[in-house]
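re: ur question from yesterday

yeah so i grabbed the chain u mentioned. its 307 aa long if i counted rite. heres the sequnce exactly as i have it in my notes:
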Amino acid sequence: MITGVCLNPCIDKTVKIERFEYGGLNRILSSRIDGGGKGIHIALGAQKLGMRGLAIGFIYESNRHLLTDRLDTADVEYRFVGAPGEIRTNLKIFDEEKSTITEINEPGPRVSEEMLFSMRELTRAAAKESRAVVFTGSLPPGAPEDYYQTLMKDARGVFRVLDAEGEKLKKGLLAKPDLIKPNAYELESLTGKKLSSLDDLRLAAVHSTGMGAGLCCVTMGAGGALLTDGKRCFYAPRVEVPVLSTVGAGDSVVCGLLYALLGGADLGEALRAGVAAGTAAVMSEGTQLFERQGFEDMLKRVQIQEL
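ran it thru and got these structure tokens back, copy pasting raw so excuse formatting
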């Protein structure tokens, strides 16, 4: 079982416009609403790849059905710490002309000490029956910046993935996650250096393994992705496909990586699977992630080279 930890769930509202006019009138061509959050995407993506998915985290009562309905439809199990209030809404604006996404995200409700304690118990229980636990996404107001570090210590003994930024990533590395998945900007923030070339990114990724990460996968958007264990490093350039949404692409990469790594694949093949899942995801609107057939098709197109 693959468990996705979602501490700050959201309702993703994705709107499509022809051309974004800053400060002007923008007319919506189409829109869709998806219950989500990065940990939710992990559980859904794992299920699509034939691995049992479990979503755990916080949830709020007034609009929780938008999230649980999506999980029920996909036959994904979930266990939440509930509280009064409303799940936050994140607005995603897709500019058709530029093929770019602008995100406007709410912070989410504040969590209590009691909720944080209950979440630790939930994480310990889920870890005992999981092959991997993925800690990903923003922290809600009220959660300390080292909370991922705390939860990862509660999940010792299972393959742990950390996909976070800033202090959450720095502090989380102290718990020695088995895999981290920063993007280029997040890796720059971690190292405190401008990383302007592929070799800069490779060296920074290798350095992160010395800071506590077992593996480091860096996603670079149009620049492709790389994966290292601190000794060997593999690179996959971008596969040219039409981009309809980048939301959930990074989560899909994690699902592909886990699918391959837990199946015994080497680093190069693991990166191929991660990039295949992420590429298939950007071809879907909103936060629909990828379909299994799309993933299989992309596996044939991803090129891998050792750096």
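noticed a couple things. The two ends are 33 Å apart (CA to CA). also The chain is about 35% helix and 25% strand.
anyway ttyl
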